[in-house]
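ok trying this again, last paste got cut off
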Amino acid sequence: MEDNWMQVICLLTLLSVCRAHDEVQVVGQAEPVVANVGDDVILPCTLRTSSSTVNAVEESVEWQRLDLQPKEVHFFRTRDDYNDDQNPSYRGRTALFKGEMKNGNVSLKLTRVKLSDAGNYTCFVPTLKSPFQKAMVQLIVGGVSRPDVSIVGIDAIGVVLDCEARGLIYRPEMTWRDSDGNILPADGPTEIETDSAGRYTVRGHVTVQRTDNNTFTCRVLQQQINHTMKTEIHVKDRMFPDTSQSWWNGWWWGWGFGGLTWGFIFGLIVVVRYILKRKCLLTWVCQRGLNENPQTNGTSERNENPQENQNSLLNGNERSNGTMPHADDCVVWDTDSSSSSVF
């Protein structure tokens, strides 16, 4: 007897599980829906059983935000919209896909997304004869705008691009890619700032070279919500520098700079040589010349001091043998005054 009761209980439990498994349910989306300010977004919601969708044309559908007053975001019944009690912030921005309702699609389309639209939305079908009348969908407004990409310069290597994205909720990561999806090295670290509201601004630069199609992409990832924004830019071929001309210019400037350097060195040698010659350090005019040329007051120095004349002759012999004269033996002649100065 007891075994029979156990069998009955198991059978009833199995039937209830099977019935619940085949019950019509309102199904939303577990992952958050992410949008940017100004975007159009779809909040998914479907009527279905475990095996198929269910016609929702004859059902009433309410989209609500329970944290607002009034809470109505969009209201549909008897095959038409009734939005008299709709929250004013959503006026003219909501719609259902009426042509898809026969397939169980009761998703909400929200246009021109605002920062204030972020929150939890309830998809509610009150006329559904089922305990599973509601589903929750979360909307995250991920940024004020998509990345803005522009050309900011041209150098000898290539074209310099700038990328900036503002109003991001979560800390962003920026990468540059070419048309093949290869990551390009950025020109220095990415700049990240926060405003008074705690939202992020990210900015970065990259220098790109000519490719097959000259298309480049700036991607901004918010890792915490797995949300990526991207903007492509096409750089016209004529914007890139001529590498052959750059090589020629570099060669020309290199030789020009080298010529100027050697010219400066040569000029410096000439000036130093002239100064040294004037100081009697390169060309020596020795006392021996006194025996041959000048007279002072009509009297020869040889007659005035025979011993000095003899020393001069000896010194002259030494010089003729290749011996360097002493600095005290040198004179510099002043041709204008016909006189000499002894150093």
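PB: full thing came through this time. The helical segments are 2-21, 243-278, 301-304, 306-320.
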